[in-house]
Design a protein that fits this description.
By secondary structure, the chain is mainly α. It has 13 helices and no strands.
């Protein structure tokens, strides 16, 4: 039984594909195989029938680390090659690689910025901050006055050019002051 499932795994991912994935991710051969098993476990019938299967975001959100994350939908959308939240194995592998402990802080901060940029305008503005705060404080709601004060405090600390929005450079500057960022922006495969 063990040899059969190992053989099936190798039949699905060729050695060449595994080597390519090793070159393109922060994963080892074994971690790539584990990632594939986890992806396949989300929809075994679909993935078994189609090696290029694309799983809908609703299926992707059944992955425990995404289901428990207040930004799970945004993570799926940012890593989806179609930007609709649906993911192929390659999208999933990219996501898991960036969220792994092996990914450098600069890569993690780039993706974190994209996840927090809810309106996709390459800036984190007041509405992005409002959405971010609401997701982090749910299910409790803070008052409008508390929300405005919090947004103002974030901008006072982070908005270096005083334009009311955070550019990627400003976001990266703030992240550089957060020693726990890399750990908090990681999931275990």
């Amino acid at each position: 039984m063990g040899q059969g499932s190992s053989k099936q795994q190798e039949d699905f991912l060729t050695e060449e594909e595994i080597e390519d994935y090793q070159d393109l991710t922060y994963f080892t051969r074994q971690e790539i195989i584990v990632a594939h098993k986890k992806f396949k476990a989300l929809a075994p019938d679909i993935v078994s029938e189609n090696r290029n299967a694309r799983l809908e975001m609703s299926v992707m959100l059944n992955y425990p680390e995404l289901r428990a994350n207040p930004f799970g939908d945004r993570i799926c959308k940012v890593f989806s090659s179609l930007q609709d939240g649906s993911c192929t194995f390659e999208d999933f592998l990219d996501m898991m690689s960036v969220l792994s402990v092996h990914a450098p802080k600069t890569v993690k901060s780039e993706y974190a910025f994209r996840i927090f940029d809810f309106d996709n305008d390459d800036m984190i503005g007041r509405e992005d901050l409002r959405e971010l705060i609401n997701r982090l404080t749910a299910p409790q709601r803070i008052t409008e006055m508390e929300m405005m004060q919090l947004i103002q405090n974030i901008n006072n600390e982070s908005d270096l050019d005083d334009d009311g929005m955070l550019s990627f450079a400003e976001f990266e500057h703030i992240i550089s002051k957060c020693p726990d960022f890399t750990d908090s922006f990681s999931v275990k495969l």
